[in-house]
Please model this.
Amino acid sequence: MAQETWNTELQGVLDKASVSLNYSIDHVVEIREEVRTGVRDMEKDLRALQQEVLEVIEASESVAEAYRKARGNLARAAERKDNGAQAKAYEEAEHFMKLKGSFEERERNLRRRRDEVEREKVRLERILARSEETMSKLRLAVEILRNRLEDMNQLGTEQDYKMVALALRFAEQE
Model:
């Protein structure tokens, strides 16, 4: 009769632990999917940011070239002592200088944003790796519980039952 009581109690503990572990596995699977989606989004953002950085660099170089030409026009107008041409060339050079500065600022901001996205992607990849490790541990725990149920039928002494019950209660608390 004592063996049946122990079997019933152990079966209850095993069932509770199994339900808890299966719930945890499902929860970790959901987290992993959310993190994977986040990593894919980060990769897409990185590609877009890199493309935008390249476009801004190209535009900045184009404006820098226009600025150099405007400065050359200003120098030639100064040599000719043509005040009207000088004023026009000065305004043009100033415009390109401001435009170049705004492109450089945009490039710095894009690079900073790209670096932030890369760091976030690395963080999410670490979370993904830890979730894989957690999944392995949870699956191992479920397998151990299944094996314990099979082993339970082979227990002989009350001491064996107490040891298994104690181990299972500890596993359930974890």
